[in-house]
Amino acid sequence: MLRSTLARKVLRLRSLRTRRLLHDYDQSSSSTSNPLPILTHLPPSSEPPTHSFPLYHPPPQQKNDPLEYLPLNKDTLQSLPSDESISRQLKNKLTKKVLENLPDEVTETELKSFYSNLIKSGISSSTSSSLQSIGSPEDQLKLPLDKNEKEDILNQLEIRLLGSGSSSSTSQLSIDAPRNESNGDDGLITLSEELNDSPKHYKIFAALAQLAVPEDSPSSSLAGPSGTSKSPAGSLPQYEAIMDLPLGLVSKKEWNVLFDAFIQRKDARGAEALLDVMDLHGVPFDENRVQAIIEVDAEAGRVEDVGRLTAEIANSGLEVKDSYKDLYILSHLQQTPSKPENAIKQLTSAELMGKPYPQSSYSIVLKYLTEPTKTFQTNSQSRALAWDLFTNMRLTSYPNPSRELYNIMIKSCGESNQPEPERARDLWIEMTTDQTKEPTTKEYSSIIKALSSTKKDYLEAFDLLRQLLLKHHDEIYTPFENEDNELGSEASLYKLSKYVPDQETFINLLEGTKRSGDLNRARWILNETVKLSLSGKLSKEHTMWKDGINADLLSGVFMTYASWKPLVKRGVVKVKDKEEIVDRPLNSEEHPEEQDQAALQPTEDQVNKEAEWLDVEVLEQIVESSSNNSEAIQDPTTSHSNSHHAPQSSADAIREATGLFYRMIDDITATPDFNTYLPFRDVVLGPKLVNSYISVYAIHSPSLAITKKAYDEAWDTVFRVTRGNVKPNGWSYLQILEKCSYGNRGGISDSDRSIAFEWGIKVWEEYLEWTKIALRELDSIGESAKKERKKWLFGLGDRQIEKTWKSIIRLYALNNQPLESMNILQDFFRLYPPTDILKLYKPLVEIKDFKIRMTTNQSIPESNVPPYYLFNDLSLLHQKLLKLSDQRTAQKELAKLKFIVTSYEVNLKKRKQWRFKGIGQNKESKFRERQQKKISKSNRQREDDYMIEDGDAYDRGKKRIIDINEVD
Q1: Is it true that the peptide bond before 59 is cis, omega within 30 degrees of 0?
Q2: Could you tell me the sign of the dihedral formed by the alpha carbons of 375, 381, 387, 391, in that order?
Q3: How far apart are alpha carbons 770 and 252 in whole angstroms?
Q4: Domain-embedded: residue 961
């Protein structure tokens, strides 16, 4: 009984203790908002427990804290502070901490000073970080050496190897000399007599080749250092090595200079042989040297050598870079300049194999087809082929072109013969908006050229220029620059950035100004280029404007002067002598005529309202004002204040153009002085620049005699400055003949007819003599593409020849000599017969691998049409023949004229029909199909002969007869 009673009491006590523990746990969990987590991720502890059960006790409840239950729901989560609010609170605390020791009020001057010092510290840090540290001696070897330094290095190397008397002739090596020693000034080796007249780098190469021959090699005839006869020393006699070659006989700098000597002379095989010699001397292999050799071969059009060297690089385990593929494509273009389809077939064949060439290879071909080079003159057919290649590339290989490809195709839209500003605008939007490619100065220059190709779109080109200048301003802008003494405003003139416009940008802008005659903007462009040229001379970081202003930019300026229409017409301005011009206001009552004249002239606000933003103070310093010599009436009281504005009359335009031209001549002929800036010092004189200057007189001169005087003086000056290297070309004669036959905008005046006829006949005779010399030079050129490019540069293109002969025919007709005009026309008919129109017809290039084309054969304009005349070209001659007194002669000459014109028209019409029908387009493909059929048929016949080897001769002959009948 007692045991059972004790057991029941124990159980009762245990249950009571358990209930109390559970009650305490519920209270602790309800009193805290964050229950204790269950740490199930912790590893079990091997140490003995330090506390008894229970391990977790509830936190002590504070008396003042009310017990509140927060449920975990959406409203509770939204009431929690966000990361932004927490960050904002931390910033506020930090700001209060920083501002504890600052005064209560800070003035604007103190804040300005603080920010100015902060900006200056940033400028100084960026300047110091841009300074490059001095590298190791090996890095210093990569610095470019000038011509004199390279020559000195070769001289020292020649003296060390061959001695000071290396030019003396000796028959063999001085083998009696002790090994590893030199005989004073005799050098290390003596060459044979065959090398006495060789260039210096050949002598050094031959000496190093002999010294590099190992002792255990056969001493007699080696073909050359590389085992071939490709090197310039391949046929030279080889000698035994007479010494143990010490390491470092030639330094790395000397090896580089010797290798550059071969590369500069375009001697790829000599440079390749030198690499073999360098390998024997223990010089480490440099892949850049092999690439330099491949570049020489590619520019020369040696496809086999480029392929061989590229294959050797691939076989040696090196990676074939994209640059090697580009050079291989370039070699195809240079091998056959008139057949770019060979390079295109390489690109399309790689596309079919699934391994397309890189986009840089496409850019080489597209640039070749759209931009004229020394060996290729672009035309409408080449540009159409470029667009087809570009479209096919986007379909098969690269749907997203690179920035360079966009640049090339946008630039091709600015061709003067085929302007396409709309297509250029679409590509620009696609590149900048769809592809989000950030345009650089090159891309801006390309779109500016495309928009400047038409008169109505050139103002949009200036809007894009403003965008480029804003980027340039943001790049170089420094706050408080003008108010700081150390960062004065003069420093802004010398600041350049990666967004600064280059010369190509301004030349493209001048294409628009000369089409619209916008002289204000042309003068502003000249002013800005002078400033940028000065900045480029003084800047050490940017090399964009190092060469100064070029001739193309000045040609555009002169052409703008020529196309500009004067605001004050010559017939309205009253001409007086210098003595009659008095210092009197125009509103004086004593001269009512001058008051009327002043009323006719536009006021300063009306004329120059658009030019207020133009800054041409540099132009005024270049071109000195000579208003006192002007024939137009000017008010002396206002002439000085108006000097910074654009010219008002033709006389002002001639004055500025003349001053600009002779300032350029003075800069070219001036003695170089580092302390004096000459903006036109680096201008290269050429026929295009002189012709542009003469065009100003041809348009604005009051008489033809003044134009002739300016023409003679300009060419005499250029002939003297260039020592006879620059002479008139076909463009020069064409310009003068058109001036003599057509006159100014208003025609030829009666006073100029006599001098126009005399001067025109003289220029025509000079043109005929010059043409004979030019044609002899053109006949020496074998490649047709090079010849076409040279003809265009000479001014002997098909359309230029038409205009020149047309001008002289018109000149004789104007002077009532239509029979002489007919004689010249018959000479033209014999030199350029109508049958040439059909003989020179060529089918358009078709690439069969193109899966898509952008152009059609019928939409491509003809490009190689020889000179011809239609009736409208000879209408004046027809009128003069009708007025002849001798009717029989008139009828006879009219019949000749009709026959000549009809012959040209008939052949042109027939050629047009051929083009629309596609005559000859599939001739080449059909020829290839016939050849393939013949080859396959001959193979089948050979197999049949082998199969009937044991058969009867009658059966074999019968089978052959059957085959022959099938062929027939």
Answers
A1: no
A2: negative
A3: 52
A4: yes
Structural domain for 940, as ranges: 925-967
Taking 90 as the threshold, does the pLDDT of residue 326 lie above it? Answer: yes
Q: Give, as one character, the DSSP assignment of residue 610.
A: G
Q: Give the Cα separation of 152 and 171 in Å (integer).
A: 28
Sign of CA dihedral 247, 252, 257, 259: positive
Residue 189: C-alpha distances to residues 211, 813, 906 (Å)? 8, 78, 76
Which of these, 672, 660, 659, lies nearest to 537 by C-alpha position?
672
d(CA 792, CA 800): 8
SS in 3 state form for 85-140? HHHHHHHHHHHHHHCCCCCCCCCHHHHHHHHHHHHHHHHHHHHHHHCCCCCCHHHH
**Among 739, 737, 717, residue whose Cα is nearest residue 727:** 717
- The rounded distance, in Å, linking the Cα atoms of 164 and 152 is 14
User: What is the rounded CA–CA span in Å between residue 159 and residue 924?
Assistant: 61
Phi and psi angles of residue 575, each rounded to the nearest 5 degrees, phi first: -95, 135
CA distance 499 to 98: 40
Take residue 826 and report the two structure tokens written for it.
């018959």
In a domain? residue 215: no
Q: What is the pTM of this model?
A: 0.75
- Beta strands (DSSP E) in 192-289 are none
Q: What is the pLDDT of residues 683-721, one digit of tens each?
A: 999 999 999 999 999 999 999 999 999 999 999 999 999
Angle subtended at Cα 556 by Cα 738 and Cα 560, rounded to the nearest 5 degrees: 70
Give Cα 95 distance to the centre of its chain.
Answer: 54
- Single-letter residue type at 219: S
- 3-class SS at 575? strand
Q: How far apart are CA 532 and CA 677, in angstroms?
A: 12
Q: Does residue 468 surpass a pLDDT of 90?
A: yes
- CB count within 10 Å of CB 591 equals 15
Which among 410, 394, 677 is positioned nearest to 534, based on CA atoms? 677
Quote the number of domains for the chain. Answer: 1
DSSP of 405-460, one letter per residue? HHHHHHHHTT-SSS--HHHHHHHHHIIIIIS-PPP-HHHHHHHHHHHHTSTTTHHH
Give one DSSP letter per residue of 777-795, joined into a string.
HHHT---HHHHHHHHHHHT
Q: Give the residue carrying structure tokens 């699934």.
A: 354
- The H or E element spanning position 942 is helix 923-947
* Count of other CB atoms within 10 angstroms of residue 669: 11
Mean pLDDT for 226-241 is 40
- What end-to-end distance do the CA atoms of the chain give, in Å? 136
Cβ-based neighbour number of residue 570 at 10 Å: 16
Tokens of 810: 């018109």
Taking the C-alpha atoms of residue 387 and residue 409, their distance in angstroms, rounded to an integer, is 8
Q: How confident is the model at residue 482 (pLDDT cuts 50, 70, 90)?
A: low
**Cβ–Cβ under 8 Å, residues 440 and 403:** yes
What the block records as the tokens of 823 is 């004689």
- Give residue 186's identity as a one-letter amino acid code: D
Cα 278 from chain centre? 36
* 957, part of any domain: yes
Q: How many CA atoms lie within 13 A of 658 on its CB side?
A: 20
How many of the other CB atoms lie within 10 Å of CB of 434?
A: 9
* 941 occurs within a structural domain: yes
- 421 pLDDT band (50/70/90 cuts)? very high
